[in-house]
Amino acid sequence: MSVPVPTEPINITGVKPELLLRMFQKMLEAREFEEQLYYLFLTTEMPGTMHQATGQEAVPVGIVSALADDDYVTSTHRGHAHCIAKDVPLEGMMAEMFAKREGICHGMGGSMHLADFSRGMLGAFAIVGAGIPIATGAALSAKVRNSGQVAVSFFGDGGVNEGTFHEALNMAALWKLPVIFVIENNQYALSMTVAESSALDNLSARACAYNMPGVRVDGNDVVAVYRTAQEAVSLARNGGGPTLIEAITYRIRGHARFEASAYRDKAEVTKWEAADPIERLGQALLAEAVATKAELDAIRQEAETAVSEAINYAQGCTDVGPEDFLAYILDETGGSHA
Question: Furthest-apart CA pair in the chain: how many Å?
């Protein structure tokens, strides 16, 4: 069953202009970061691989905008936008892409394993569903410490069929943990549609099996995502337990770099391109006179400049070598091999 393409204008009533502009900027930074990575992988010797989330930027930006700085996030193999939304430095992220010592994981992680504990980014995980129990554990830690923190786990529609999903949701509901589970339903798990992989059309309905709220939201409307997240965060922070949010979105690019995604109808992609979350927010900002076109263009330029500077920084950083790998390998005594 196909999901209707959203066409309604974004309702920004009641949201502070400075927050709206920040969300616009964060989405632009995420888009530009990945577009430049795509170009770099075509033209430069780059290690590893990467997965773009073009068209999905409203989900991480909307959710994270409702969090506090010290709240926790776990991500997926498609995690650049989650890190950017959580204010992980662009320079350190780009250095990580180039496998440099100055990268946020010292060049050891790459695109699919980004982490920055200082920002509450507990990690991007290449294994489908791997971040779900980790976010649940972080929420348990917050509850035990009575810290008031909340944890969020992002995962795709394919992740809801992993055992970790069911085990974590059951535990979180049983112990009323302050965790929010976010399904980024971009409608394809690699090349398999949701209809082919799940017996339910509405994945948020799985929440009822674990006695927690389940909400479906337009994932290409950053304000709607933000408002939904606000309610879930408030519930979690006040001892009400977890929420399952299904954000309906669409990835415009293929599953991984240069993958042609021939399994998708071109007309379908074109329709979803018209629902671009960045352009939709921009149109709302102009319609409600929150910003002028010149001001929005300036924000676009700032995002492009920030990413360009991050690339220049990364290219001047230090390559990792064999000694770097050995430094993180423990011998049988617990000491380093370096």
Answer: 65
Cβ–Cβ under 8 Å, residues 87 and 56: no
Neighbouring-strand partners of residue 210: none
Question: Are residues 24 and 296 in contact, defined by beta-carbon separation less than 8 angstroms?
Answer: yes
Please check whether residue 194 is in contact with residue 213, taking contact to mean a CB–CB distance below 8 angstroms: no
Strand partners, 319: 100
Beta bridge partners of 73: 121, 152
* Measured distance CA(326)–CA(229) in Å, rounded: 42
> In sequence order, what E strands does the chain have?
72-75, 121-124, 151-156, 179-185, 188-189, 192-193, 214-218, 243-248
Rounded to an integer, what distance in angstroms lies between the CA atom of residue 202 and that of residue 256?
26
Q: Tens digit of pLDDT for each residue in 234-261? A: 999 999 999 999 999 999 988 887 788 8
Residues near 177 by beta carbon (within 8 Å), at least 6 away in sequence = 136, 139, 140, 143, 151, 171, 236, 241, 242
Q: How far apart are CA 165 and CA 211, in angstroms?
A: 14
Question: Scanning the structure block, which residue is given the tokens 């500077």?
Answer: 309
Residue 135 vs residues 32, 68, 183, 237: alpha-carbon distances, Å: 28, 15, 14, 15
Segment 279-312, tens digit of pLDDT = 999 999 999 999 999 999 999 999 999 999 999 9
Are 64 and 82 within 8 A, CB to CB? yes
Distance between CA 127 and CA 176 in Å, rounded? 26
Structural domain spans, the chain? 17-327
Inter-residue contact 330 to 336 (CB < 8 Å)? yes
β-pair partners for 188: 193
Would you give the end-to-end CA distance of the chain in angstroms?
54
Look at residues 156, 141, 174 and name the one whose alpha carbon lies nearest to residue 72. 141
Q: Is the pTM of this model over 0.85?
A: yes
- How far is the C-alpha of 270 from the C-alpha of 223, rounded, in Å? 23
Closest CA to 29 of 119, 73, 77, 91: 91
The yes or no reply on domain 17-327 and CATH 3.40.50.970 is yes
